[in-house]
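Box 3.1 — From sequence to structure: ROK family transcriptional regulator
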Amino acid sequence: MDDAPGSLTSLRSRNRLLVIDAVRRHGRISRVDIARATGLSRTTVSGLVTALLAEGVLTESAEGSVPSAARGGRPATPLTLNPEGGGLLGVHLRHTDIRVLLADLSGGVLGERYHEIDVDHRPDEALDFIAGTALDLVATVGQDAGRIFGMGVAVSAPVRSRSHTLSLPSMLSDWTDVDIAERLSERIGLPVHVGNDANLGALAEWTFGAGHGVDDLIYIMLSDGVGAGLILDGRPYQGATGAAGELGHIAVVEGGYVCRCGNRGCLETVVGAQALTAAFTRTRGPDTTIADLVALLAADDPGARRVVIDAGHMIGRALADICAMLEPRMVIVGGEVAAVGRPLLDGIRDVLLHRLPSPLDQGITVTGSRLGDRAEVFGAIVLATRQTSAHLLAPHFDRTPREPERPPSRETPAQ
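Predicted structure (token representation):
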């Protein structure tokens, strides 16, 4: 009964998560500013911070004081997440490869593995790899397994919130009825939470990356498919059923190629990785990759530049109406295709500049991802943090002060 929705215990757990999330988003923040960011009273924040410090979840920063947001306030000792307070696992499950990452509570990378596999048609093998790799990473870095609080999984499809299964046509066509969370939780013995990779990429860029401090943004993930994640008024927006952001299925070419969704001329058929590389089939051969396209751009190849600028124009066309309706402050472009860089961003900017009414055309920043190909897996880490019940954190911490033992390197190169 104590944990029932609306109970004091449930309310305290939610408030704890609000405090933890505020510290995570700001990196270093005072108690006063936590109260301002969360809307909680200073008394509530003070009590929660005291408990979180005692449990080792938070620590007072040794980097000096920060100015208080309150007028006339004295500099306050900043709080940060304690890297030694615990860990979380993140997974990005694409149709050609899997990335598994172990991070501490502050987002520092403790270990990482990358594996190429036909995920689309081999779900059992993929899940076995994820589970085995996750347990191996924990053992390899010497992390206390009792301090790993959960796993987040980013997948290339909308996710049904109740069943954790995939919906709508997805790259992961053989996974439609697979409950990823349940299957992995059985294998690793931890809570597992699943989300759409574009949504989680947006969450990661807002928390750690290019969108830090920007509360209205659109994150575009350009890979084999095209997805978008929305942060509106400082909150992730996923729509009524979790399918918001399917940018790749906006029609941009009348009578164009048939898309996997069944419609013609979708953006995905024009600017997805396969569509871009297919443009070079006659001149460069059928095995052209995005890396080859990046190399051609570096060599100032006019054909490559034309293809990429045109792709930017198509994305801009699909974005223009959305930006006019939502008025984001930033558009962040990530995913595999984003590696083509400036010509793509210039193409997007050019269309937005000419299609949006003033002052909207001047108020939107278009930029590349700061987290690169790790954006979605970092978003999975943030998802795991947000979904883990706060009251589960405290029992795992040793309250006896001790000198922490850290692995020799904060980051293990991907294999």
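Summary of the box: The two ends are 47 Å apart (CA to CA).
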